[in-house]
Predict the 3D structure of the following.
Amino acid sequence: MSDGIDSKDLAYSPGFGNEHVSEAVPGALPVGRNSPQRAPLGLYAEQLSGTGFTEARHLGRRTWLYRIRPSAAHPPFLRTANGQLRSAPFRDTEPDPNRLRWGPLPLPLPGGDTGTDFVDGLVTVGGNGDVLRREGIGIHWYAANRSMDDRVFSSSDGELLIVPEHGAILLRTELGLLGVEPGHVALVPRGLRFRVELRRAADGARGYVCENYGPPFRLPDLGPVGANGLANPRDFLAPVAAYEDRDEPVEVINKFGGNLWAATYDHSPLDVVAWHGTHVPYVYDLRRFNVLGTVSYDHPDPSIYTVLTAPDADFVVFAPRWLVGEDTFRPPYFHRNVMTEFMGLIEGAYDAKAEGFVPGGASLHNMMSAHGPDRVTFDRASGAELRPQKVDDGLAFMFETRWPVVPTAYAISAAHLQPGYDAVWDGLERHFTG
Ligand code: FE2
């Protein structure tokens, strides 16, 4: 349970990529060294590395943890059911060039004493790459109606970019607490243990997850844009140290090699009293995104909306913005891209689709598949009077990835798959006057 903790009451350590430093008890953090002969307050020192030790300094990620007991003290992990969670390599189905669209994943029905927590509620759409080669991504939905009680989760396979669409959640991580609401995203680094608690279990919680198997997300370079703009580093909030001192059984679920493994610790592994480092989780409010765009003509490529980038995937947000382009078709243009696009809608509507794309829903436009505005949007935008126009009726996002996405068998047979998606492009009339 979330103990009535309000997001506004949470303290944070701001700044993407910073060397964050935090201690929940004064004096818990060693000064001047990482691994003293005896760590302060009888704590154990433990390093959690997210990149290879010899990675370039500006790309390196690691955090030193000072904890009540070391993570190493645990019984064997045993395989546990994967549910609908799948991982790369994806071979459930044949790679398919067709455009796909889904309505929202149904929220789990109230389940009495059981219910569905975040881990149970993970359902995989598809992905690419290979977890054992640490490349590619997995795309998941989650839908939950209970908090993770007495268990925690981590993915050895990748970092998790969590995009809530419905229901506020509290992430209790080894490094502290993050309050995450629809309109926020949370980035949980590879291997970090955390528990997802629902603020209001009765209302359920739902959203999207990009599991990035490869090198971690970072802020994009800005080039000629300059030193500011897009997602500003200080708006990424890391937690401050907060620990549990509980000698009670806690099930630790570890996603490893595409499968879930479980071991029961005799204490809470969220027992980190102090820490410092760069391998940390963040919460970011997408409404803080500094949207840049044309002030002359033409719709820029959507890379201008990149919040976070990684070699295998970009995370892009379509946030409220002004459209002022002159003699310009202002919605996204028709296109066929080498990149593959998974889109989701957090709230409202998206300006390239007049109908059918609803909050909680998603579309998948695979490598080189032709898409763009639907007929209604094309007709409206190509005949519109081009006054300055505020687009502020929705918040959409995209996981864009460099390799095709192979959907899971679940995804192409789910009841919420929308049949006949191709029809949104029906009726695009011939206007050729030559
Ligand atoms: Fe697209």
